[in-house]
Design brief:
Largest sheet: 7 strands, mixed
Radius of gyration: 21 Å
Strand content: 25-35%
Structural class: alpha/beta
Number of strands: 17
Shape: elongated
């Protein structure tokens, strides 16, 4: 059985993981980054990024994550392709088991496993991800200036995304499978007062359609679950806002978590309920979920891990 021992191990290779790796590496502690099942994180499915500081022109999400990884490895971080299936946080050093049988141990662990947007599960949704289908209005709303978009969902996130998109889109249609929203009343009040938003009740999306070359969404096929009537609605973009699921199953029963499954960290800190274990990025943040905020938390985790090890 292969064994790897490191002072610091970082789980996840998105903006939080790569930033943490950069700072730990510059502290001369040669961190090990374990990429997980989605190397580069959610940012790799973003076709263009305009809101990451330092770039005048839009950049590809995949390219940006490649640059972050190269920068970290240039300073001494090591990146391995593995997927951790079991962790033992009641032992010290902490122990982690990869799906290939490799055992890792470390004195400090930085968890940057992120969160995954919940999707509709349609083949056509997969086809147009990054080409008109998104799970982040803050990230991609700008690309739909003066266009028509639909938002799917009925909770706070869906209503907030719909309201935000009215800053750009000509028309926003909120599609919900039930006849009432789950969002807070104050948000619902703002939604119903906004004349740029139309709500379609008791309806689901059956298919997303568009051009193949260049790949582009043109309309959606809707299905009323009560009348069983299907029809098409013109749309340039589809925003899926049915929630996120943090990648925290590994740590259940070992770390304190909030009711929604996100790892609990202490105020103004990335420290968790176990000394020496830190959490950064979308795995603990269910509010902002931005690349830049994840990177900032990755920096915080690295600095806190360094100080903890020194103490």
């Amino acid at each position: 059985m292969l064994m790897q021992n490191r002072k610091v191990i970082i789980l996840g290779s998105g903006p939080a993981g790569c930033t943490a790796a950069l700072y730990v590496a510059r502290a001369m502690m040669s961190p090990l980054v374990i990429q997980g099942i989605q190397p580069g994180g959610q940012l790799t499915i973003a076709s263009e990024i305009e809101n990451y500081p330092g770039f005048i022109d839009p950049v590809k999400g995949t390219w940006l994550m490649q640059q972050m990884e190269i920068q970290a490895t240039n300073y001494g971080a090591e990146v391995v392709m593995d997927h951790i299936v079991k962790v033992f946080l009641d032992e010290y050093p902490f122990k982690l088991i990869g799906d290939g049988g490799t055992t890792y141990s470390c004195s400090a662990l930085i968890i940057c496993t992120g969160a995954q947007a919940r999707w509709l599960g349609l083949p056509s949704e997969e086809k147009f991800k990054g080409y008109g289908v998104s799970a982040c209005a803050t990230c991609d709303g700008f690309f739909f200036r003066d266009k028509e978009v639909v938002v799917v969902g009925g909770g706070n996130t869906a209503v907030e995304e719909a309201l935000f998109l009215t800053n750009f889109a000509k028309r926003v249609t909120l599609i919900h499978r039930r006849d009432e929203l789950k969002a807070e009343n104050v948000l619902q009040d703002r939604l119903f007062k906004n004349k740029a938003i139309n709500v379609v009740w008791n309806t689901v999306i059956d298919e997303i359609k568009g051009y193949n070359e260049p790949r582009q969404v043109t309309h959606v096929v809707l299905h009323n679950v009560k009348t069983e009537v299907s029809y098409e609605l013109a749309a340039d973009g589809v925003f899926v806002a049915i929630g996120h699921s943090p990648a925290t199953d590994l740590f259940k029963g070992q770390l304190d978590m909030r009711n929604d499954g996100y790892i609990h960290t202490h105020p103004n800190s990335t420290t968790t309920s176990i000394p020496g274990v830190f959490a950064a990025g979308d795995v603990t943040d269910n509010v902002f979920r931005q690349a830049i905020t994840s990177a900032g938390m990755g920096c915080m985790a690295a600095l806190e891990a360094e100080r903890w090890l020194s103490a």
